[in-house]
Each structure stands twice: as C-alpha cells, then as structure tokens.
Amino acid sequence: MKSPVKVTITGAAGHIGYALAFRVASGEMFGPDQPVILRLLEIPQAMSSLNGVGMELEDCALPLLHDVVLTDDPAIGFRETDYALLIGSKPRSKGMERNDLITKNAKIFSAQGRAINDFSSKDVRVLVVGNPANTNALIAASNAPDLKPSQFTAMTRLDHNRALGQLANKCNSLVADINRMIIWGNHSMTQYPDISNCLVNGTPALDLVSRDWAIDHLIPRIQRRGAEIIQARGLSSAASAADAVVDHVHDWVQGTAEGNWVSMSVPSDGSYSIEEGIVFSFPVTCKNGEYEIVQRLELDELSQSRLKTSEKELREERAVIEDLLP
C-alpha cells in the first residue's frame, strides 16, 4: 500500500471543511488506493465542534483514513503536510468594508504562510479557498520565502463548475460533454466566465447559444451565484465549494484530461499581459503534479477589457495590504 499523504484543512469545523473532510478521507481527491492522514486545524473557540467532526470520521470507519489530528496549533496542523487546504477565513460582517475584510484576512493568511513555510513539506501544494481567495493566496505565498509561488493557488473551480452547469442546462447536454470552460481573473464580481473556446460534444458552444445569452445571462449569473445561493438557503455554498476543492486538487495532482483544461487562480507569469505576481485565474492544463497556463488563445476586445478590469481589482487589493507583505 502507498504511504499516506498528509492533508491539512483549516476551518475544518466550518460548513465547507466539514463537507470536505469526509470526501478527502474516502479517496475522492487522491484516488481509491491512496491512504491519507488528516490534520484538521481550527481556532480555539471551535475545538469542541472539531472534536465532533473527529468522532464522525472515526465512526465512518474509512479504510483509507490512517489518522486524524485535531488541533488549534498551526505548528502541529501544518507539520510535514503535503497538501494545505486553507478554508478558514474571517467572513465579511454587516457594515464591513471590503478593504477592512482584506486587511483582517491578511493577518490570518500571513501567519498561515509562515507556518506552512516553517513546518510543511517543501513540496507542499496549497489551495486557498477563504475569501478574498486570490489576494489571500498572494499573502500566504509572500510569507513563505522558502517555497515557490507556484505552490500556492486559489480556487475559481467553483465558478468554473457553476458555468459548466449553466451551459449544460442551456444546451440540454451533460457537463461531461463540455470541454474548455474558462474563468478569468478574480474570484469576485469582476471574474469573467468565458465560453468562447468551449466545445459541447465537439461543437463550439457559440454555435449552440447566442453571444447575447453568454453576455447578458451567463456572465452575471456566475458572478452573482454565491449571493443567489445565500438568498435561497440563508447560508453560503458548502457542498458545492467542497466539491470544487476536490476537483481542483484532484486535477492538479492526477492531471487534466487530454484536450481539456480547467480554471485555476495562479501567480501570473505575465501571460495575456496580466501583471506578474498577482494571483489570477487562467485556463490551465495539469500533468505530473504541475500546472501550465494555456497560451495563445485569441481574446476579442470585450474579453481583453474584462481581463483588465479584474486585474485592476486585484492590483487594488494588493495595494491595500502591501505594507503587510514581506
């Protein structure tokens, strides 16, 4: 049997962390023959709830789950971990300005970046889910000087999956029939869901749906989907967010299907004239545990404008916390 991989989940007693832990432990992320050790990290006030999560994991008798560590100490939570899934973050409260949210989370993710740098495996792969995810990933990476920035990513896979679902419904097709969906930019209202390269059963999506539908329905629907779910359930996305975490890491580790790509927020290398360093969502392919940005896609004037709008927002977010970066 393979040696276990160590997986840290922060905010593990929260809705997303709770939904995620069982799926990781059951083999959905790394495969049916890969044992795992879970390191579940919480704040001290949530340890009682986290103990309950630990009890339920024990009661599931999952054959791939070799151990569960419950802790509020980052030195223990990130010790020799191979995968760090950073879900816990300070939520935006009523009346809080976005800049205040960015600043408060900067302190959390700078500390986590330092802990990952000091205690995790030097080959660790990090996925930031807690919002504002792109800038939180930048902060964490900036505080991990011994690691490569490419080891830090942020999640736009939930937006990607939402867009797949909307297009599948519109075309009366299966999600499995759709390739080459793209989410560009920030995980925010400036994100740009782009179907101009999508294929549905091999047919260009824009031969099946109108450009007006894509602009007037799909883009704003995906941008606002999180708020729509909160209005419907009274709570933010949890199961679908956990599902997207599984998809993101699974494809990063196991590789993307031939001829397909997925959306990941990664440190920009200047592709598509996006400023280097900011964490920006691009179409990528994955192989052997590495990702590569898809190059040489044609961008029309509308697309270029939307990419620049999202880039501008990310640069503004970075400016808010620039004095907190090393």
Structural class: alpha/beta
Number-wise, the strands total 14
Widest sheet: strand order?
3-2-1-4-5-6
Low-confidence stretches: none
The fraction of residues assigned to DSSP E strands is 15-25%
CATH H-tier superfamily of the largest domain: Lactate dehydrogenase/glycoside hydrolase, family 4, C-terminal
Give the C-alpha Rg.
19 Å
Tally of distinct domains: 2
Which architecture of the largest domain would the CATH scheme give at its second level? Alpha-Beta Complex
Shape summary = globular
Largest sheet: 6 strands, parallel
How much helix is in the residues? 40-55%
Provide the succession of SSEs.
EHEHEHEHEHEHEEEEEHHEEEH
CATH topology of the largest domain: L-2-Hydroxyisocaproate Dehydrogenase, Chain A, domain 2
N- and C-termini, Cα separation: 42 Å
**Total of DSSP H or I helical runs spanning 4+ residues:** 9
Mean pLDDT: 96
CATH class bucket of the largest domain: Alpha Beta
